[in-house]
Design goal:
mainly alpha, two-stranded antiparallel ribbon, 8 helices, 68% helix
Length: 180
């Protein structure tokens, strides 16, 4: 068997990973910028999600925003001489989603907390996507940005899984590896 014909020529996987992630992020960036420029009106469903985000996760989102030079909220003017109110910006929702995902990564895989946070993450994304692009949430700028950026993340995950095949004990059959 010719290895190059079976697997392709040898490549620098570190460089390939960096190029793939960079290309995915560059493709996603205009969509993220379009989302960040949006005003996202707070709905009752979004307010419910805000109330359910654990305090430590909200602090992480605020810290991440601060490190990147942003805040989670914007002041929204109200009529009738009422004072403005603070509500999450589009970018703020993205920071909250990222902080929830970081917390999911920290908890025990398959735990009740992990499942609850995953549901909350899905609800946050679905609710915000629906508010931003009601007719077709999947076509909204944030959904598009996440999909494009996810290409790089999936590639990274695939590389890690591929490397793991050679380092884990021989407990997987070739069929199981192919299925993974």
């Amino acid at each position: 068997m010719d290895i190059d014909n079976a697997f392709g020529p040898a490549q620098n996987l570190v460089q390939l990973e960096a190029n793939t992630v960079r290309a995915a992020n560059q493709a996603a960036d205009p969509h993220y910028q379009a989302f960040y420029a949006r005003d996202v009106a707070l709905t009752p469903q979004m307010d419910d999600i805000l109330q359910r985000i654990p305090n430590n996760v909200m602090r992480d989102a605020e810290s991440l925003a601060a490190v990147e030079g942003h805040s989670l909220c914007v002041q929204v003017p109200r009529g009738n001489n009422l004072p403005p109110i603070n509500q999450p910006s589009a970018r703020g929702w993205d920071y909250m989603k990222r902080a929830i995902q970081d917390e999911i990564d920290r908890v025990t895989p398959g735990s009740e907390m992990g499942r609850a946070l995953t549901r909350l993450d899905n609800q946050l994304r679905g609710t915000v996507d629906g508010a931003v692009n009601p007719g077709n949430p999947a076509a909204g700028p944030w959904a598009q940005a996440r999909e494009l950026a996810g290409t790089g993340k999936q590639f990274q995950q695939g590389l890690r899984e591929g490397q793991g095949v050679f380092s884990r004990p021989k407990t997987h059959s070739p069929d199981q590896v192919a299925d993974d």
